[in-house]
Amino acid sequence: VFSFTPGAACLDSTLGIPSWEKLTATEFLPPLPELMSKWTEWGSGGGGTYIGSVVISMNPYRSLPIFTPDKVEEYRNRNFYELSPHIYALADEAYRSLRDQDKDQCILITGESGAGKTEASKLVMSYVAAVCGKGQEVNKVKEQLLQSNPVLEAFGNAKTVRNDNSSRFGKYMDIEFDFKGDPLGGVISNYLLEKSRVVKQPRGERNFHIFYQLFGTYMKSPMFFHKWLWMQTDLRIKGFTDLRVTNAMQIVGFMEDEVQSVLELVAAVLKLGNIEFKHESRCNGTDESRIKDKNDLKEMCELLGIEQSVLERAFSYRTVEAKMEKVSTTLNVAQAYYARDALAKNLYSRLFSWLVTRINESIKAQTKARHKVMGVLDIYGFEIFEDNSFEQFIINYCNEKLQQIFIELTLREEQEEYVREGIEWTNIEYFNNAIICDLIENNQNGILAMLDEECLRPGTVTDETFLDKLNTICAEHQHFESRLSKNSKFLTDHSLPHNCFRIQHYAGKVLYRVEGFVDKNNDLLYRDLSQAMYKANHSLIKQLFPEGNPAKVNLKRPPTAGSQFKTSVGTLMKNLQTKNPNYIRCIKPNDKKASHIFTDSLVRHQVRYLGLMENVRVRRAGYAFRQAYEPCLERYKMLCKNTWPHWRGPAREGVEVLMADLQVPAEEFSYGRSKIFIRNPRTLFFLEERRRQCLQDLATLIQKIYRGWKCRSHFLLLKKSQIVVAAWYRRYAQQKKYQKIKSATTVVQSYARGWQARKLLRELKYQKRCEEAVTTIAAYWHGTQVRREYRKFFRANAGKKIYDFTIQRIMQKYFLGLKSSLPSMSPVDRSWPARPYLFLDGVHTELRKIFHLWRCKKYRGQFTEEKKAVYEEKLEASEIFKDKKALYPSSVSQPFKGDYLEISKNPKYQKLSSAVDDKVLLADVVNKINRANGKGTARIFLLTKKNFVLADQKTGQVKASVPLPDLTSVSVSTQSDGFFALKLKEGSASAVKGDFLLSSEHLIEIITKLHRIGATTADREQLNIDISDEFLVQFKQDKVCVKFIQATPKNGNTVACKRKNNRLLEVSVPTSP
């Protein structure tokens, strides 16, 4: 496909498209009435025209009904020159070239401030969003891309004397598409925000929109009065009355806390403007500054989360570091105001850069595959104000670079291409602004280089020294003017003040006031302020001021603002040169921002400096379209039988054969060395129309062949299917026939077999009846014979037989009745059915005993080993103490627990548990009776299979460990007390201190386990248990009698032990109630 380069010509008025070519019949523009007649469409709502494929758009300063969804559909997939000139036509051409030809595109929107560049860029983006694909994910990406504009406009646009929504930063957006043409995401680059506007605005202009939107929406209280806004009473502008910024931020992907943080920083910038300083003199004669009202500082510190003292010191002192030394100096009032303004500008500028980075994170493409890219450049226009400073100088330098690209691509390169291709061409002169770009950006003698050199040199550096340097080096340059330069012709020019210099740009002469150039280029922020900001608790501040980190102090001087912008512009130019450019040249009809006013001189000036006159002349004298021979032949070879479907010779010869066969007039095209050049778009339309018709014919042929192939394939498939269906049907029919014959045969066979079976059955039945008759006759005969013999025998033994039969029936009835009335399976159930007959008394009693034993066996069979052992212990305790010890009945219902202290689990007894080797069978607290006074001492009693241990209850220290073989007997009383005596074998090592007289609440369990251990050990004698109310206990060498008596309770029901004499201990046991 032919590429619509900026060298394309327009159609004339015969095609119904207005053209600027009619304006260039002479060397100058026609008078105003004729110009006005050429812009009738602008006055009636057209809004623009073409120069080739360059769209000339004029700002109507009013809403027009030409940007509706119907217009989008009207221009969608239409030829560039097919409809009236429109921004949508250029956007559609760029989008289709990107989608169909896989060529990266860029749309360059240029013009003066107020010419409508921002609106044009939004129209381009809205059109691309409307014509690309649909879908939930795609629609989300499109909405994010579109909503990024209101966010950046709120923070980066402001009202100027020439524009109510002037972009005070440069924006270049790369929109990334997939192979289908659906948007995947985008990347935004910003260039040089005019941050000085935060602290100072020219007369009649405003600060950034976000301040007024925040001021009017959130800060309605007088306490939020802001001194940087108080001079401006127009807080509202038409089109910016409501605050949609937060909604747009949320759509783009900002979280609620991020939106809140951004608004807090904007409010903090406003609060900075309220801080004022007063002069104070120190005792040493130096001047210093102090904050007048600390309430404003307090409110700002609360917003940012900074300690008030830290920020107050940063506004009063400055620390200078040189190698290993630090010098702290006080700031006077002027320096304090400079520090405040520098902090406000840096805070807002860095916040804006963070916003751009955050938006890029949200809208960036998620896939890493190669993307098609369409770039849209919306950058500040050329500015000429009453007071032009460093910002205007940088802005106009950027516009010079963009004009240079336009000149190179539309004028110089096209004319050079004609010469390079051997096309007859008369060179058209034009102004090349490369000399102005060199004046500004030359690395040796350029203004930016000298400004950087002046900022970096040691000594006293002022704006005046910078101007002196310019006057020395640039005095002879034809585009530089200064009253103090060596050029004498400017010495008497009173329109040129002494502190200014003038540059003759491509758009006209601009007077720059040198005041502030050095400071704005240095863009210095005191390190104390950076470090103070880094100490803030606010979530964003640390990200905005990373150099404030004390651990990462960098003494290297940061690059200047001019060098940074020069590098950014260079990168932008390289990026634009890699893409196919599309131009929208915006023109401002008047300076009053009013509709229906057309200022002749202003429009003439813009037409001249934008190079539109030269562009028209090149279009009229040149060729509208050009293309290499190979792609041209590949695209149109189907129009000629000689070149279709394949051309075997050189591509140029194929194109010549093609054009000759089509009978295209020779004046409509020319052959270059590698390309064919077509003069008039009508010729291209003719070729495209013929190609479209040919494609339709080819499509019809392909459809015919395809439909024939499809019908034949369908017929063969039906035929094959019919054969298969017929084969299956025949098989099915034969199967059905076979099944019928088989069924009939089976029926005949069944009838035959049935007749034979019935015949055989009749014969067998007859034979059986004969046999039964014979058997019956024989039985009756034998019965008769037996009865005859039995009558003789019965008469002798009838009584005995009747008795036996009667007894048998009675026993049978007894057992059946006993079966139905048996008691439950509980061993404790003593019930038993009554005896029915007296002679069954012995049997009845024996059956009851047998049933009880069987029931007990079944009950015992349900026991586990642990439960069986418990019952065995209980049984053994019953054998030992039943009817012998008064304490026994109360212990029957208490289970034998054994380890009452849980010695293995209790950390208090861990040391004692480790001292015992065997498994502990019983652990309990007992009282060891003292012979001297009869009082008890608490001891821990442990019993194992080999020994028993007595230990201190508090410390767990082992007091005595006695092997069980040394234990000979145990003595207890018959009363309900818990006293028992462990008697040891005389002469054993354990019996040195004598026997043990102990008292325990679990006496029955202790003695039972001691007795059971002795009974289960083969090599040990049976433990003797003495149950008596009086027994002897050996205490060392003496024997003491322990006597138990019953006494009335005095101190409750407790057992009391008293010493009567050296040979007697008396234990008083309360009587049972």
From TrEMBL:
Residues 49-692 form the Myosin motor domain. ATP binds at residues 111-118. This is Myosin IB. Pfam families: IQ, Myosin_head, Myosin_TH1. Residues 569-591 are annotated as: Actin-binding. SUPFAM superfamilies: P-loop containing nucleoside triphosphate hydrolases (SSF52540). It comes from Salarias fasciatus (Jewelled blenny). One of its GO terms (cellular component) is microvillus. GO terms for biological process: actin filament organization; actin filament-based movement; endocytosis. Its main location: cytoplasm. Keywords: Actin-binding, ATP-binding, Calmodulin-binding, Motor protein, Myosin, Nucleotide-binding, Phosphoprotein, Repeat.
